[in-house]
Amino acid sequence: MNHTAVAQDLLLQSMAERSVDVAIVSEPYRIPDHPHWLGDRGGTAAVVWRGSVETPPLKKMAHGEGFVMAGWGDMRLVSCYAPPRWDMASFEDLLENLRRSLSGDGSQRVIIAGDFNAWSPLWGSVTRNARGLALEEWASSMGLVVVNVGHASTCVGWRGESIVDITLASPAAYSRVRNWRVEEDGFSFSDHRYISFDVCLSGGGEPIVGD
Q1: What residue numbers bound the domain in which 100 lies?
Q2: CA distances from residue 206 to 20, 201, 203 in whole angstroms, order as listed
Q3: What are the residues whose beta carbons fall under 8 Å from the beta carbon of 90, sequence distance 6 or more?
Q4: Predicted pLDDT of residue 172
Q5: In the chain, how many domains are there?
Q6: Cα 197 vs. chain centroid, distance in angstroms?
Q7: Which residues share a beta bridge with 208?
């Protein structure tokens, strides 16, 4: 959202118009004191529930600097934001805190999404930076799968284009994800494009989760 009010308002409007059940948000304008919003400690990452009667509400399970984890039915949704100003030590702290929060057996259903400011060919970047290498190694050690497909830029600004918005999933969650896509023709009032995908909840249909 680039910490802008108009981008946040448009997101909420888009969720209502498109019947999007959950949004995973990086750098919101603000995180309201509302049960439909769950945020990290610094107000830079959030998970938002539209309030649909067809899907369960969110439940906060963990949060820290740069991440928040929400329970949604039998799944866990994690929103992350790692700003470019962070040094590698801060980035690695985020990954370690996520590791501790996700500790458990490998059968848990987890989707992690956000702006990591990390580049790697694994998610379509032409080059790899130090963050990209660290995130690759961390995801592999956690048994997570990269959900990103294709080479569409997720961030398009006056400085250029990049793929820094990344979706990861445990194998149990990955099998439920459909139609992951970068909304290249959409408009978000941000230099980051919307990413959308469908998720099958246990015993339900195919509600949409958006990053």
Answers
A1: 5-210
A2: 11, 7, 10
A3: 82
A4: 94
A5: 1
A6: 11
A7: 198
